[in-house]
Inverse folding.
């Protein structure tokens, strides 16, 4: 008799959930056989400023700058099939973080509203965090980026400094 009561209790606990599961979005958010951890927001836009990331390691500039003005978002991570900018350090996640350009409205001093496209950083729930100006960022949250901000991924010693074409040297 107790077994029947337990089975009935279990069935009552397993009521259907009509909450969004994300399964449908996951199926449509695949690139080269990999399900992306990130979906671009509706306000995603290509930037109108030519942003660049300068990569430093131990104070030395590595290679040419990374030009990040040609698309609306850039994925950083170890998974080379989907990462726009590979981070090969073992402490970096396969899909570590993303820089997303978003169109935002700003109120001008005269009261008029203007639209600007600004860069934002989001950690995608990485194991070893993403750092903005030496401070860890919370996962799944946008942080506005500004000129001369530095970004680090995991325990990598590489630093990415954000500048644009009009930045003073």
């Amino acid at each position: 008799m107790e077994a029947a009561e337990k089975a009935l209790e279990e069935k009552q606990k397993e009521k259907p959930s009509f909450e969004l599961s994300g399964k449908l979005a996951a199926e449509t958010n695949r690139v080269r056989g990999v399900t992306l951890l990130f979906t671009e927001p509706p306000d995603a836009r290509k930037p109108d400023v030519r942003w660049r990331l300068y990569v430093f390691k131990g104070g030395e500039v590595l290679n040419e700058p990374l030009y990040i003005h040609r698309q609306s978002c850039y994925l950083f991570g170890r998974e080379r099939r989907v990462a726009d900018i590979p981070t090969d350090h073992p402490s970096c996640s396969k899909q570590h973080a993303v820089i997303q350009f978003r169109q935002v409205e700003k109120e001008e001093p005269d009261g008029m509203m203007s639209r600007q496209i600004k860069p934002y950083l989001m950690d995608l729930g990485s194991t070893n965090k993403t750092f903005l100006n030496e401070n860890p960022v919370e996962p799944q949250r946008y942080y506005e980026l500004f000129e001369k901000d530095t970004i680090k991924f995991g325990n990598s010693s590489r630093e990415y400094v954000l500048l644009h074409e009009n930045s003073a040297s």
